């Protein structure tokens, strides 16, 4: 693949991330609100949002297989078609007032999300050496645009269909998925030469390697803790007397903080190393918990969300760059699929737990105290292992 083709693919993936990545903000912004209206029990209000993460988790391994078998371009086209169907199904469910159908629709959108999440790996596959981290970071910049596009679509389309609030928002999600389809259809990524899933080392052998365990654990903790705190924050804010608008604005700042640092995260990794930046991200997530435990004012919530976003960016991009060191080209599909299954499976579990814990007495404080042992469990071995990995090459 020539440099010009690689650069073109990265640009396309960045734009596709901007429009395709707008789906999660739409789901996060509206899923709980719609769940409150449709759910038979208020405790199930956040259930659709959690099912989005379930959809991403269960979709990662099949998505990896599809792309390994047919190629990334064809896989991404198929994934975009799933997104179109998911958005239209959600609109239908809202119109009919069917909670279970809405849950199924959101999980379908999660399946679409499993393809969007792998854009970062597709970018890394087009680069070599230190440029891999920069390519990952470049594509993740598209998430910054998605953080603006998603909430704005949700806001401007709320009442576009008279008598049926939020229906047009999910039709808008389908339109964005269609735009994603148009973009990814222009990718020029060679189809895989070998389609055997047995190429390279056995997956069980790779999964037992210290390098993979460290990289996957870093990604799991970074993403799961982000979802754990983010899912509960709007509910905690409202319980503390803050408005829905203030909670929504806090989530928008959080998502901007998640993707804004991507302009320079790749350069930081090239200078200081992927393990160092990932460790910094974990430390910032711990800092988020410190701020959250120090008070319940609007500033505390917003600052905690911003630190959580930046910490996720450093931790997740650093972990993704670490994963690219764990496999050969013929092993990449199954290794990347396993990594994303672990990351998003853990994220779905964390999201479910957040919805349950935030409603109990002192649940918000308990959740933030749980951040520290989770971070320490990965941060300590990561700090010790970075020099070992550097010497091993």
UniProtKB/TrEMBL annotation:
PANTHER family attached here?
Answer: MAJOR FACILITATOR SUPERFAMILY PROTEIN, MFS PERMEASE
* Official protein name in the record: Multidrug resistance protein
The transmembrane residues are 12-38, 50-68, 75-93, 99-123, 135-158, 164-184, 212-239, 251-270, 277-295, 301-321, 341-360, 366-384
Q: Molecular function terms in GO for this entry?
A: transmembrane transporter activity
- Where in the numbering of this chain does the Major facilitator superfamily (MFS) profile domain appear? 211-393
The alphabetical list of record keywords is: Membrane, Transmembrane, Transmembrane helix
> Does the keyword Oxidoreductase belong to this entry?
no
**What domain of life is recorded for the organism?**
Bacteria
* Region forming the signal peptide: none
């Amino acid at each position: 693949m020539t440099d010009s083709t690689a650069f073109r693919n990265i640009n396309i993936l960045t734009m596709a991330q901007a429009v395709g990545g707008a789906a999660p903000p739409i789901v996060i912004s509206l899923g709980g609100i719609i769940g409150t209206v449709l759910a038979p029990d208020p405790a199930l209000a956040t259930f659709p949002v959690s099912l989005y993460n379930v959809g991403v988790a269960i979709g990662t391994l099949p998505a990896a297989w599809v792309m390994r078998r047919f190629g990334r371009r064809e896989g991404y086209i198929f994934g975009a078609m799933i997104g179109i169907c998911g958005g239209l199904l959600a609109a239908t469910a809202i119109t009919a007032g069917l909670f279970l159908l809405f849950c199924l629709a959101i999980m379908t959108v999660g399946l679409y999300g499993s393809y969007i999440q792998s854009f970062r790996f597709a970018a890394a596959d087009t680069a070599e050496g230190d440029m891999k981290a920069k390519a990952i970071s470049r594509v993740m910049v598209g998430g910054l645009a998605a953080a603006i596009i998603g909430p704005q679509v949700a806001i401007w389309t709320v009442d576009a269909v008279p008598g049926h609030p939020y229906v047009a928002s999910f039709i808008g999600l389908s339109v964005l998925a269609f735009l994603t389809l148009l973009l990814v259809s222009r990718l020029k990524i060679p189809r895989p030469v070998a389609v055997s899933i047995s190429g390279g080392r056995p997956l069980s052998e790779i999964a037992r390697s210290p390098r993979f365990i460290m990289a996957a654990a870093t990604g799991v903790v970074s993403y799961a803790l982000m979802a754990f705190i983010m899912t509960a924050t709007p509910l905690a804010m409202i319980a503390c007397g803050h408005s829905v608008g203030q909670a929504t604005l806090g989530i928008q700042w959080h998502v901007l903080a998640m993707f804004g640092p991507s302009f320079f995260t790749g350069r930081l990794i090239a200078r200081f190393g992927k393990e160092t930046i990932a460790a910094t991200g974990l430390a910032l997530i711990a800092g988020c918990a410190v701020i959250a435990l120090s008070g319940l004012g609007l500033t505390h919530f917003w600052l905690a969300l911003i630190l959580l976003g930046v910490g996720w960016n450093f931790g997740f991009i650093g972990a993704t760059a670490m994963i690219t060191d764990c496999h050969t080209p013929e092993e990449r599909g199954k290794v990347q699929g396993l990594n994303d299954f672990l990351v998003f499976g853990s994220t779905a579990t964390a999201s479910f737990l957040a919805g349950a814990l935030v409603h109990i007495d002192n649940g918000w404080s308990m959740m933030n105290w749980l951040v520290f042992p989770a971070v320490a469990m990965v941060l300590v071995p990561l700090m010790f292992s970075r020099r070992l990995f550097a010497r091993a090459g």
